[in-house]
Prior knowledge:
Strand order of the largest sheet: 5-3-2-1-4-6
Oligomer: single chain
Strand content: 15-25%
Distance between the termini: 15 Å
Largest sheet: 6 strands, mixed
Number of helices: 4
Amino acid sequence: MRLRALLAVLVVPFVMLVTAPVALACSCAATPFAEQLGRSDVAFTGTAVAMADDAAGPTVSSVDPVRWTFAVSRIYRGAPGAHRVVTTARSDASCGAGFQVGREYLVLGSGDPVEANLCNGTREVGVGAPVHTELGAGRSPPADRSDSATPAADPGAPSAPLIAVGIGLAAAIVLAGVAVRRHQTTRRNR
């Protein structure tokens, strides 16, 4: 009976973790686009070409910044060059912009490198109102100016949540094995 209770204590939380839907912690107040644009020093459209992740050490947080390099196609505010580095939180759960290589985005942000997030109006082009109706025609980036941009690390590397689930599964298996062995030893000693 104790073995069943122990297995239930180990297995049930793991099953709940694996089968639970993803919960997003980011919550943005509904803000008109004109206000989002008014808070931004930089506004441009561009294609995400690379991501660099400088996380080091055994602990990685969803709020840790990652750097994205964009090939700029149109400039609406500020003066980015042909390439621009943008930082955002690692995960959209922490309001990270959730960029994907090869997709085009409208990026609104401030600072150098530009800081962007889900709440400041940054979004994929084609999602929401068309960019040209909100910002006008914009201008092309100068061909001779390019902000230094470091190509990204391999975006196909395993993510921290996947590694954590793997470690949790391995620990649950080891603990279940120890419990079974103790139960067998206890039964033999009776």
